[in-house]
Amino acid sequence: MRVAVLSDVHANPFALDAVLRDVEELGVDELVCLGDVAIGPFPHETVARLRELGCPMLMGNWDSWFLHGVPRLGGEVGPRLSEQGDWCVTRLDAADLEFIRGFQPALELQLDGSRLALFHASPRSLDELLLPDVSRRKLDKALEDVHAGLILGGHTHLQMLRRRPDSLFANPGSVGLPFSDGPSGGSLRVSRWAEYVLASSDEDGQRVEFRRVYYDVEGMLEAACGTGFPHAEWWTSCWSLYS
After folding, report:
1. What's this model's pTM, rounded to 2 decimal places?
2. What's the rounded Cα separation, in Å, for the pair 79 and 235?
3. Which residues contact 118 (CB under 8 A, 6 or more apart)?
4. Are 31 and 4 in contact (CB under 8 A)?
5. Percentage with pLDDT > 70 across the chain
6. What residue spans define the domains of the chain?
């Protein structure tokens, strides 16, 4: 059994459609999304596309904020993100918000010979940062109540794989806003591809395959600038010139 795990779509239907085409060509058995779907330039369009899929959807921090109030984020980047979040909420209709309200906090799937545990950021928080360089002690503490051979969480927009004594922990990266590195000062660096993971388990063992799919980033950025998305010039400037 192969499961395609998507995370952090960030209202980018251009990237989402590219990933879904790749998933269809691979013929996977299951599709799961780890949340943060509607923060970005095309919130309603992205939610409508996800509603068509009928796949399990997990709650992300932005999904929760859209339901309960977008916080006033700090730092240089934070206020811009809060304004973008406020704008996105106005683009979502009642059906969109009802769909998001149905997102699950976590999910477990039975693979062939193993269990797959999934959540947005960590089992104990929607916005805990488990970055690639997270200490062994912090990672073990965050995952201490999870009992599965494969464990997947998103949120950081950075693909990663960590070995543990009795499991593998992986981050599928981001479909719609994959970071080249972490936030720094007033800018982000975003890669020009879409990311996700294929997770599987059979008699030969567990597998995690990291996927990167190319699509028309320039076309997406041009369309985004015409949506009224706040701080669109800054947002588009974050996309790296190189793949």
Report:
1. 0.95
2. 13
3. 5, 32, 34, 58, 106, 107, 108, 109, 151, 152, 153
4. yes
5. 97
6. 2-237
